Amino acid sequence: MSASARPYSRRFVSPPSLFGENAVSVNRMLVAWFVLPLLLLPFHFALGQSAEWVKSPDNPVLGGDLGVCFDVTLIQEEGVFKMWFSWRTKKSMGYTESKDGVHWSEPQIVLSPTDSGWEELINRSSVVRHNGRYYMWYTGQTSGNSRIGFATSDDGIHWTRESKDPVLVPEADWEKVAVMCPDVVWNEEKKLFEMRYSGGEQYEPNAIGYATSPDGKTWTKYAANPIFKPDPNCVWEQHKVTAGQAVRRGEWVYLFYIGFENEHLARIGIARSKDGITNWERMPSNPIISPDKGKWDGDACYKPFAIYDEKEDFWRLWYNGRKGGVEQIGMATLKGKELGFEKK
Long-range CB contacts (< 8 A, 24+ apart) of 65-69? Predict the structure, then answer.
């Protein structure tokens, strides 16, 4: 690079020049170098921290000989991470445990397809611990449709379907042929289960909807669905947004979600809303997780699931990365509780 092309150059200024004929220009330089950065510090902190997610050097943390593993849901209990993951090789939901989120026990199948006619493949689940029991909402698929089923368990391993029929099916025009990727939380204030789910096309759904239920079985869809749609002004998510995970912290509900630039290129972003339904605000630094060319997640990054560690003060986020036709599970971390939004 030539000297004229350098973004800046350093120059030694002798003390006499601070008081001579060059005093004005030199003092301007000092203001630019030292004073202005100090004045701008309050604005820097008002914008929140610079959120940098770091991918684990052990990635992928689940996959390899297991075959295609994708779309996870987790619960942390008594120092143990319990993960339910979509095991495409087995057409079923798998289960595994870990103490650090990186090293996982030998997985086992916990929910498999039946001859019901609507669940030839089982995947994309959400698990909640409520009133001493485990509740699972899962995606059942055939070659042309996706629907959501419901099962319960006392131990998170042995599951009983609560209905032979799906509890959520595509009905609205925007849902087309598929509802999938349920993300369910219990709202103690409302005494309701809240579900964010993806609807649209079968290969990759198009947008995110919202529904509520008092018992996990009978659901009422939000009249103004979808609640979260792709932003045509953001190239990285201009095509589709799917598979959101809602996390309430303080007065905000944060939505970790997949954004599609096109049908095959996906990244991960975050948005927030006061009520978790309307007036979503995207984080300016989106996307937070992107493919690393040539690596195990080099073609796409899908389906985030994040947990904040209060004791250690950092976030863990699991996601599935794709290279070619192979998907595996990886993890990324973020120091501190602030995700990077402007503080209001």
Answer: 66/94, 66/107, 68/325, 68/326, 68/327, 68/328, 69/94, 69/320, 69/327, 69/328, 69/329
The residues spanned by each domain of the chain are: 14-46, 54-335
Cα(59)–Cα(79) distance, rounded to whole angstroms?
Answer: 21
SS3 of residue 227 by DSSP = coil
The tens place of each residue's pLDDT in the chain, 344 residues long, gives 433 332 323 223 333 444 444 444 444 544 444 444 444 434 333 333 446 999 999 999 999 999 999 999 999 999 999 999 999 999 999 999 999 999 999 999 999 999 999 999 999 999 999 999 999 999 999 999 999 999 999 999 999 999 999 999 999 999 999 999 999 999 999 999 999 999 999 999 999 999 999 999 999 999 999 999 999 999 999 999 999 999 999 999 999 999 999 999 999 999 999 999 999 999 999 999 999 999 999 999 999 999 999 999 999 999 999 999 999 999 999 999 999 998 87
Tokens of 121: 């493949």
Q: Name the architecture of domain 54-335.
A: 5 Propeller (2.115)
User: In terms of Cα–Cα distance, which of 167, 136, 207, 181 is closest to 305?
Assistant: 181
Q: What is the pTM of this model?
A: 0.86
